[in-house]
Design a protein that fits this description.
It is built from 11 helices and 21 strands. It has 395 residues and is an alpha+beta fold. The chain folds into 2 domains: 223 residues, P-loop containing nucleotide triphosphate hydrolases (Rossmann fold); 154 residues, Nucleic acid-binding proteins (OB fold (Dihydrolipoamide Acetyltransferase, E2P)), CATH 2.40.50.140. The chain has a 6-stranded mixed sheet, with helices on both faces. Helix 2 packs parallel to helix 4, helix 3 crosses helix 4 and helix 10 crosses helix 11.
Length: 395
Amino acid sequence: MASVTFSGVSKVYPNGTPAVAALDLDIGDGEFLVLVGPSGCGKTTALRMVAGLETISSGEIRIGDRIVNDLEPQDRDVAMVFQNYALYPHMSVRDNIAFGLKMRKVARGDRDTRVVEISRVLGLEPLLDRKPRQLSGGQRQRVAMGRAIVRNPSAFLMDEPLSNLDARLRVQMRAEIARIQHEVEATTIYVTHDQIEAMTMGDRVAVLRKGELQQVDKPQVLFDRPTNLFVASFIGSPEMNMLEGTLVKDDDGIAVVLGASRLPLPRDVAGARRGLVAYTGRRLAVGIRPEFVFAEGAGLPRLRGRLLLAEPLGAETLVHAELDAQPVVSDQVLEVAQDADASAAAVLEEAAASRRAPFLARLTGTVEARPGDEVEVAVDPHRLYFFDLDTGEAV
């Protein structure tokens, strides 16, 4: 296996459309890195440039010690797993897996040994004599992976490989791919628009927006310390609540005013965020994750709103409410909303015009309130996120 390095890599199409802009990214030997972002963010283009399926406008890509900018795809020693599996329907599972080795004129005995070994890892041994049409979607995906892995390439490139599977099978295959990747210690670049896949599978996750790298780090770091509004809005399921607030100072310290609600901030919150005091008297974006909202909370400040819908999920309930506050409608937040649902951005803009901010809470247990009832929830001020409204950068 080998490392993969992007150094100032850009891609501009002949019509002038930029797809990737000055991408600097290092993927370590044996690392599982996920490229994630909304549709059109440049993640698949970046992957295809590594594979040699897209030319590079500027910059340099290295696989191991080799600069591969001008190498043909077959000379780059990478294996790609596609969204549609691309299996040969007339061949057995055994022959599909062995096909790449056969083209490289690997001796038949060695081919058979390697096919059996990788089939054991993938749980495909009972299926080796079947044709693709006799397999389930998950089994076909494992065959596609086997065909890639058996070559022992320098790097694996996976382009939304689970998007054709149903929800239950996707969850199963996420775990399978992560297990297999760590077992074979394969350098892997995995592209997805699904941030749940990204967070559960990647050693690190790189978030792209409009061709530009926003943040790359371990999944938990992205969740806990997003660098800007876009990453904060994109990472997390359910998504983070984003409200406009005003930071005010009084005799007791500082507080953030969110419409009709006021949340006092403990002194250690301001102490941990040195730049926050500079926003006193100014408006800023305040992020509240649904996971850090509670039905009860002694001593915690509270938000009040009107219940729209309660979705019982067994051990917990998703509470949809609206607050007397202003939602954040910056370009970064609207872009994430639009990608999730074509009508979501319009709904958010309409809410901003009426000063009724949508708010989502993930509460333990059941909720007895009915739609239209007034509700009150507690918020942990230590788990608030603050962002500059103009730049979108974290405060």
